[in-house]
Amino acid sequence: MHTFFMKDIPPVNTTAELEKRERDHLFKTLRCRPGELLKLCDGNGTVATAEATGDRTVKILTRATAQRDRIEIHLFAALPKNAKLDSLIKPVTEAGVTSITPLKCRYSVAEKSSIPERWYTLMEEACKQSTNPFMPTINQPMTVQQALECCTGNGYQIFFGHQHGILLSPEHFAKDKPLKLAWLVGPEGGFDENEQLLLDKAGCGISLGRYIFRLENAALAGVTLLYHTARMAVQLAQQ
User: Fold this and answer.
1) Looking at the predicted structure, is the pLDDT value of residue 83 above 60?
2) Residue 73 has pLDDT above 60, yes or no
3) Structural domain of residue 231, as residue ranges?
4) Distance between alpha carbon 122 and the CA centroid of its chain, in Å?
5) CB–CB of 46/65 below 8 Å?
6) In the chain, how many domains are there?
């Protein structure tokens, strides 16, 4: 059953029209016939099953609200070049990241003056592919210092990649607190000396392996490692 994005999913037993891009994909590309079933999501936790109708609309059959995971992972990452942006935004959305904040670093590419519409398209595609019902929040760009202040103010545990960092384990997470984790990823040229000093003082460097990752790969590897290890910590705490 294919999943489609709909910003406002109506109540059960009502009909609605998909946006043009989604509607064309359903009825022209996939050649959906009346009576066929599909899934809907709105990126804010609402999920539904629907039935295609004869007039190119969909009828809502079931509607539910998904619960957010108790583990939050907030990604602060320098932006890769446009050609690699898909390789950053889509995978971390599929992995369930809570928010994405572009980092303004000394060696990073110039940040966007506004958040491109394409970012939202990429996240919609990732939510549909992965069945993740929650789209990440996109924040305005921050410097490393601003990002660290944001993390401290919101109670995030701060982690960043380091070749000689620790091997992450469940014991490294705060006990008896909500698991709100921040993952900071620098540009291809790395953090500069001052940025690295700020990170060393505020956060914890963790190892992703022996070698250096590309920016977009480091973003996904760190998010996945943090989430997997945090889930282990939750399971151990429940025993």
Assistant:
1) no
2) yes
3) 71-238
4) 11
5) yes
6) 2
Do the beta carbons of residue 213 and residue 161 sit within 8 Å? yes
Counts for the chain of helices (H) and strands (E), in that order: 6, 12
Q: What would the pLDDT profile of 196-227 be if each residue is shown by its tens digit?
A: 999 999 999 999 998 889 999 999 999 999 99
Q: pLDDT, tens digit, for every residue of 144-169? A: 999 999 999 999 999 999 988 999 99
**Does residue 175 share a domain with residue 130?**
yes
The domain that contains 25 carries what CATH number? 2.40.240.20
122 and 38 in one domain?
no
Radius of gyration of the chain (CA): 20
Q: What interhelical angle do 215-238 and 86-94 show, nearest 10?
A: 10
Summarize pLDDT for 84-118 with one digit per residue, the tens: 677 899 999 999 999 999 999 988 876 665 677 88
Decide: helix, strand or coil at residue 102: strand
Q: Are 99 and 74 in contact (CB under 8 A)?
A: yes
> Do 51 and 124 share a structural domain?
no
Q: Are strands 46-52 and 71-78 parallel, antiparallel or unpaired?
A: unpaired
Domain CATH for 181: 3.40.1280.10
Helix, strand, coil % over all residues of the chain, rounded to 5: 35, 25, 40
